[in-house]
Amino acid sequence: MVKHFKSIPLLVISIFAVTAFVNCSSGNSENQNRIRVGGEGKIRVMPDQVTLTINASFSKPKMVDAVRETQATVDTVMRILESFGNKDQDIKTSSISANKDYQYVGSTYKFVGFEAQQTIDFVLHDLNKFTELTAKLLDTKISSIAQIQFNHSKADSILREADLIAYDDALKSATKIAKRADVKLGKLLFLSNDGSGSDATGYSSGERIDTYNKGFGGQGFKIAPEVIEFKRTITTEFGIK
User: Fold this and answer.
1) Which residues form the signal peptide (predicted)?
2) Domain positions in the chain
3) Alpha helices of the chain — where are they, by DSSP H?
4) Fewest CB atoms within 10 Å of the CB: 13, 83, 104, 210?
5) Minimum mean pLDDT among 21-30, 60-69, 162-171, 188-197: which range?
6) 191, 159 in Cβ contact below 8 A?
7) At a CB cut-off of 8 Å and minimum separation 6, what does 15 contact?
8) 81: number of Cβ within 10 Å
9) What dotted CATH number matches 44-156+194-240?
């Protein structure tokens, strides 16, 4: 079954029925004359945004020097990011952290100086600019791009649509089972959606780019985004007559 989500292109929805049963056993009357059915709704869509986690880290004999160089690099990165997105909405920075830096030398750890580090999360809404952005970032002295996370800007709306598909799936299954059992389906008595099976975070490319505080310059890198699958499962109970 194919269904189109108006505001999202290239969207394919697949529905899978799950098991159901009719409860006709003796016992508590509240548990009699009911049919419990599970439903599942899936929506597959191409991502339209990507989040980059950028690290700037320097180790120096003096803490003040480590902090100063880290801040200078972050300032450069911020100017780049502001030309690709909204400063207030798309950029999140951590505070600079500074700690003693130890390295394993010979058979023991030795103090070599102080390390200062800061992390920036940036959401790019135009995937066509991904290569251009990474080219500019690689030209700075960042230490790494630690994570590349693809997602969709309308993830919440997609999940709500998946909820409706899951319910329609459950209702369809309950109707078929009632017909086969020669009983009449009654009103909805119970509906539960615990969020199981949901995918609201997209996926990570698995890439990590370490630059070791060296500006490489040149061209940026390319990553082909994969389809994201959003899934919801629900449980329903209908009365039967």
Assistant:
1) 1-22
2) 44-156+194-240
3) 63-82, 87-90, 130-138, 155-180
4) 104
5) 21-30
6) no
7) 1, 40, 41, 42, 165, 168, 169
8) 23
9) 3.30.70.2970
158-211 pLDDT per residue, tens: 999 999 999 999 999 999 999 999 999 999 999 998 766 555 557 787 778 888
CA distances from 178 to 22, 185, 198, 236, 238 (A): 8, 6, 29, 14, 10
Cβ count near 152 (within 10 Å) = 20
Pairing of strands 12-23, 34-45: antiparallel
Residue 127 contacts by C-beta under 8 Å, 6 or more apart in sequence? Answer: 47, 48, 49, 50, 225
Q: Which residues does 36 contact at the CB level (< 8 Å), separation at least 6?
A: 20, 21, 23, 190, 235, 236, 237
3-state secondary structure of 2: coil
Pairing of strands 228-240, 34-45: antiparallel
Q: What is the pTM of this model?
A: 0.77
